Amino acid sequence: MLNTKKLGGSKSLQSFTSQYAIYIVLVLLVIGITIYNPSFLSIDSLRNILIQSSTRAIIALGVAFILITAGTDLSAGRIVGLTAVVSASMLQTATYANRFFPDLPQVWLVLPILLAILVGLICGLINGIVVAKLHVPPFIATLGTMVAVYGLNSMYFDMDPNNSQPIGGLRKDFTKIGSGSIGTGQYSIPYIVLIAIFVAFIVWVIFNKTKLGKNMYAIGGNVQAAKVSGINVAKYLIYIYMIAGALYGLAGVLEASRTGGATNNYGNMYELDAIAACVVGGVSTTGGIGTVPGVMVGVLIFTIINYGLTFIGISPYWQLIVKGLIIVAAVAFDMRKYAAKK
């Protein structure tokens, strides 16, 4: 009887650890850095972590859509870069000396933002069509898009009279989105953080309360079963890639606003951080599994690694090693769970 109770307790502990491992890692990471340097838990540090996490979270949420369908998206970072350049090029002040479009009047703020999001959506549409209609594996399809989008962005960035010069002199009403906040002092809440939270809520609703979300999980869980059950897999895959592209577009706009400028190298390698955050956050590489809270925590973990280890003076090279080990461990853990289910 005693052994049975011990066995049951052991299984309960194992189940708890498995279910909440990501949150345990986050807490341990924060505790470890705080012990080394107690000022890490200051309001300013936490604020900086949230600001740095905001655009990365939106990108990761877009990537999560794709991963849950058992796909992947290597084009996310380059789409972010393209949309950052597009929005920034149209939102410079009238008095800035090196304007991208010297004769462009001061347009309504919303128009370039919507245009950039539309550009991201179109990139996602192309990915979706290539994957769903041409049956090109997502890895290859999005790799091709990644290269093509970077080339397109570089051509646009090199247009006269800009000639590949960093885009600066952005309007204050635009940069305020990325640097402004509600309230005053250290307890103010940055707009960009509120936007990320709102986007996360919308994505949570899509994942959990819509037909699109239900079908997305079904496609990722077993695409053949999804087809047999009457789901139009191609249509929903295209929708999913379009939504992801729009999220990348929004992230590009926010990144340009936050940094006050843009170049064609914006977004480089962001897709790898996003994929890693998703995997660490519990999005299965085999599809069909993933949650919004998990993705958000995954993003926070990688932001804390980047910011926290720099904060305590750890070499950036060690940061890469730590991130790599975490990614491998997360994928190995995910594959073990998948093998156990089979």
From TrEMBL:
Show the stretches that span the lipid bilayer.
Answer: 20-37, 109-132, 139-157, 189-207, 236-254, 274-305, 317-333
Q: Which UniProt keywords apply?
A: Cell membrane, Membrane, Transmembrane, Transmembrane helix
Name the predominant localization: membrane
Q: Does the keyword Transmembrane apply?
A: yes
- Which regions form coiled coils? none
Keyword check for Lipid metabolism: no
Which is one GO molecular function term here?
transmembrane transporter activity
- Pfam families in UniProt: BPD_transp_2
Subcellular location, in the record's words? Cell membrane
Q: Which GO terms describe its cellular component?
A: plasma membrane
The record gives the membrane topology as: Multi-pass membrane protein
CDD domains, alphabetically?
TM_PBP1_transp_AraH_like
Q: Which domain of life is it from?
A: Bacteria
**InterPro entries per the UniProt record, alphabetical:** ABC_transp_permease
Classification via PANTHER family: ABC TRANSPORTER PERMEASE PROTEIN YPHD-RELATED-RELATED, GALACTOSE_METHYL GALACTOSIDE IMPORT PERMEASE PROTEIN MGLC
What protein am I looking at? Galactose/methyl galactoside ABC transporter permease MglC
Q: Which organism is it from?
A: Paenibacillus dendrobii
